[in-house]
Amino acid sequence: MLKKALYGLAIASVAFSSCGGPSADGGKKATTGALGSSVAEKAYVAPGEYDEFYAFISGGFSGQLAVYGLPSGRLFRVIPVFSQDPEKGYGYNEETKPLLNTSHGMVPWGDAHHPDISQTGGKVDGRWVFINENNTPRIARISLKTFETEEIIEIPNSAGNHSSSFVTENSEYVVAGTRFSVPIPQRDIPISEYKGNFQGSLSFLSIDKEDGDMDLAFQIRMPGFDYDLSHPGRGKSHGWFFFTTYNTEEAHSLLEVNASQNDKDFIAAVNWKYAEQLIAEGKFTEEAVKYAENEWDESTHMATSTIKKSVKVLDASKLPGLVYFLPTPKSPHGCDVSPDGEYIIGSGKLAAELTAHSFTKIEKAIAEKNFDGEAYGIPILNYEAINAGAVKNPGLGPLHTEFDGKGNAYTTFFISSEVVKWKLGTWEVIDRHPVYYSVGHLMIPGGNSREPFGKYLVAMNKITKDRYLSTGPEVCQSAQLFNIEGDKMELLLDFPTVGEPHYAAGCPADLVHPNTTKIFKLEENNHPYVTKSEKEARVVRDGNDVHIYMTMIRSHFAPDNIEGVRVGDRVFFHITNLEQDYDVPHGFSMIGANTSELLIMPGRTETSMWYPKEVGVWPFYCTDFCSALHQEMQGYVRVSPKGSNTPLTYTLDDDPLDM
Amino acid sequence: MKKSRILMIIGPLFLLGLFVYPLWNIRLEAPQYPIPLGMYIHINKITDELPHDVKNINLMNHYVGMKEIPEHMLEFDLFPPIIIAMVIIGVLIGFKANYKWFLGWFILMSLLGIAGVYDFYLWEYDYGHDLDPKAIMKFTNPDGTPMGFQPPLFGSKVILNFVAHSYPATGAYLMFVGMMMTLAAFFVGKAEEAKK
Ligand SMILES: [Cu+2]
Question: Which of A118, A158, B125, B127 gives a 20 to 30 Å CA spacing to A127?
Fold first, then answer.
């Protein structure tokens, strides 16, 4: 009898807690209750076992992309993308410096926001990750074979590249939409003359089917709003791209007030298939611009930077049918398309409800010219005519929605710090769960595709105070992992992240893990300064430049004694790692060099530049613990006074190398 | 044609498999090599089991002063003509000679095989014992003599942090099958002779 009563009570409490809002106990009950141990098991990956999913979580203001495993939350690697990384020599060695070149010169830092995985047939294919840089508008492509940045393109006529870098369902395009509208072309005008003089750009970068090579295909000139987020249509809406806007007021100051006046802003619906047609018909103008296109060459192990000077522009105000505006309440942030492509969800940050537009109704409204006026020549569709429904009173401050592929949607609420699960079509709230704290985006692996893998959900939080051991005023940022297989979301794990976990993309490990590169083949290394055997190692003087062709292998450099270098020289260490074994990189560092170490993968060549400033005998050594004799992996460069005639010699074990 | 002759003609032809398949496999296993390093010994060359294995075996072995695995050996010049000769002789015997010759061929081939194994042992011994006096790491046996790193001739053996496995490979099995056929040819021939 007593047992039965307790049982009833337990059910009642579960039912109660599931329908309530954020609870006062901070949700700790879930991890300390009777089910606590089984929750831990669900996120546990035993030593030596692999995670089921990769999660690529952006590092926000760190400028990088971090790779985690799910469900363990283990951090595997931080891929340098937009910021220099001395750990890997990225942006410091001569080979990768060109990747960070822009029309403003070398920019050593970036603000990485939204990663997205390439797709084939509407499914994530695990080939590349694209990610945008917000501050100096750029898009990067990262190879999931090498987990290295292979390409970075700067976006001209753009500022604050935020509604980016989302990929269409056959990886036809990756987009870049400007957050800040600016005078185009840039010129000296009063800021108060913003309205009508500032404009926005939406850029479409084509992606090569074979090697992923990106090209700025065209831009669409837009009114001077702020473009916040975007998502591609898919399925029936494939061929369209949707961008949220804010500041349709076109205010230029105190935006927190002045850009929050309109009851509705817009989602811009762009017909990119039609844009392609317009380009083919020559309906564009060729504009003079300046932007950097930086590409990594896998064969030469080297990046090159090219400054490009023109772009094709389509003017949305003058080309009917290219763009339509969907009125959407109150400064929408997320712009999320359901897996079948029917619903476009606008998350009005200041709205009391979530708005869903119907693609079928949009097409009908366009056909019937059911417009509520226009903005800068772009038709505004009638709100009632396109509205599919709304989730009423879902929470405070909706930001971003993803889908589980089973008819459910999950939306983050920044102000009320929670994730809310609701049903597509009926718009009813099914479940809600608090998060800690101030969640921005969330991610379900395969989220931006026709086939999400609806097993896990990662919530990315902005604030963690009191959640972890403190580390001074700056505490870690974090992500939270939920299991979403059941009716109720189940919190499995908290894990800290690198930088601000701004957004993420995920995919099954099977799509990536078996295809990764283990070593770079020496015979395929076409670096102009490669040294393929110790016999070929040498030092060559060319005026004041000294080129050292050096090799490394467990556990020595060749040569390891170099004499004949002079103060005032410019010394290039071109170092080739001769290893052909998985996971055996070597490092290189030179005392007093005004750069970073090198960390050289098996079969790769990298170059470090050093200006010897003082007479003496100066050591260099391997920085990566490579073998039992790692500590012995070192050498010396003798530096003689300027103008001295110390002969140029280079030896290993006191022998010349070409014996 | 008699069954014994057919067996005696086909048997030696199996030896030609040695020109396609390796004779022997040596594999080194250690915790830090979850995928073991391995090499195949052919009659005319030594090859990687997985790409770059031989290079990586050399890298591991240099710590204890072992020489690099040779790209060329005298045996690589000798073995192929011997095998070719034995195949030709075997086939000719199969066509022409008395069944007693079948046994003769088998015994000669066995002797050559034993000589080959002995030669392999000598090479292994030298490879495992002729160490660079400037070796980075020197190990001694409990009795104070310098430790050798000779892989086993056949079977598995612990060598420092590695377990070395040494087993015949496809070529050797084909050779074995071929030789057994010639032995069978002898007995079948003998029975055929008795029937007459
Ligand atoms: Cu090293």
Answer: A158
